């Protein structure tokens, strides 16, 4: 847990710094400098490319996490062909994906030409974005296997957001046009691969081979079978995540897509702790399964669920007590996002509270069952999303997402409990929910007319009360240790002066 705590804590700080920078983009620059259609398009390009990259990568990231310990244990660095294989496969996958998208080009144009003509005009830019982000994700995964989550987080959460700000500021001063913004975004991840390659080189892991190693020869059938199942599951998840903005753009237009993007950004903030900690945790989980260390897996399962819920619950509460003030700062056309944010936020809390169920399944011998749960998710999400968006608009598609999340996590939780006798819940998790609910209820009665003063006062009041109750009830040893670590360092710094 020490590695997770150290890497996770720093990664969390970097990620939330990135989200603070990103908030400037989402709530200030994008809505005020671009039209709603341009805003919606820029985000949809990223969504489409991200979805296609899942197809191109061929799910090999999961295979890297699962099999990297075997390659490192049985091969010398120069014999290790895992990096070579994992970079060649996305290249081949990208070629296939590109050819397939051309086959469906007429259908795509027909669906989006009425409500989202701008998307049809700029659709070409998804291809370089897809290729380069595929390489980045593969390299990032290799970096994770060396228990380094900080460098990829720094690139994704800080560098990329600053890059966007620079582009939007240049656009404001008429130094570049909108076309250049889309092109520059599409090529960002080409540059982002460079520091990851340098890191792997520093670990003497940047080697390319022209033949298969003995480990690959021995495990290739299992790797192919494993990757095949995981691939189908990841594609299903990618489609499930992309279905909302794609349907909104087709049925309602890019303007409504921009509104959903803003609401989704709030929900994605709740995902940050999970992304920060899981990057390191998955590698450790894979090692634990290799050693059949169920006690370590149970410890990871329960502690990550609790600590992630604390982080997510704190952010959700901070967001919701200020929701009316935050919406007041946006252009009036974004006013209907309030309850979309609530529904998506509750879904993220459910996903967080159920812990690392997907990661446990993917790194265990029960990885095939994870595919089954993903099929269930897509079978619920797609028809519900189409039905609900037609009848209830943006609010309906948020409800469809919530229902899918609840069923998806319930099935995986029940399977892990039945077969492995593992579950993430504890009295401490119940205590976290009590803290969140109590503070949200109490602060509903606090009203301040000035928007900025309201955000400041409610944020301070909620934060102090949350932290006080968290330590008063001693819900998490990791949080307590982190607090005393920071306190001791500050004390040592003061005494050194």
Protein topology:
Layout lengths: L1 H32 L2 H22 L2 H15 L7 H22 L1 H8 L4 H6 L3 H19 L5 H23 L5 H9 L1 H15 L11 H38 L2 H16 L2 H19 L3 H28 L1 H6 L9 H16 L3 H6 L4 H54 L6 H17 L7 H22 L4 H20 L1
Helix pairs in contact: 1-8, 1-12, 1-13, 2-4, 2-7, 2-11, 2-12, 3-4, 3-7, 3-11, 3-13, 4-7, 7-10, 8-9, 8-10, 11-12, 11-18, 12-16, 13-14, 14-16, 14-19, 14-20, 16-18, 19-20
Number of strands: 0
Termini distance?
33 Å
Count of runs of 4 or more consecutive helical residues: 21
Outline the low-pLDDT stretches: none
Would you tell me the structural class of the helices and strands? mainly alpha
- What is the averaged pLDDT score? 88
For the biggest sheet, the summary is:
none
Q: Tell me the overall shape.
A: globular
Fraction of residues in helix: over 70%
* β-strand amount: under 5%
| Rg from Cα | 23 Å
Task: Provide the number of structural domains.
Answer: 1
Order of SSEs: HHHHHHHHHHHHHHHHHHHHH
Give a quick precis of the structure:
The protein has 497 residues and is mainly α. It is 83% helix and 0% strand.
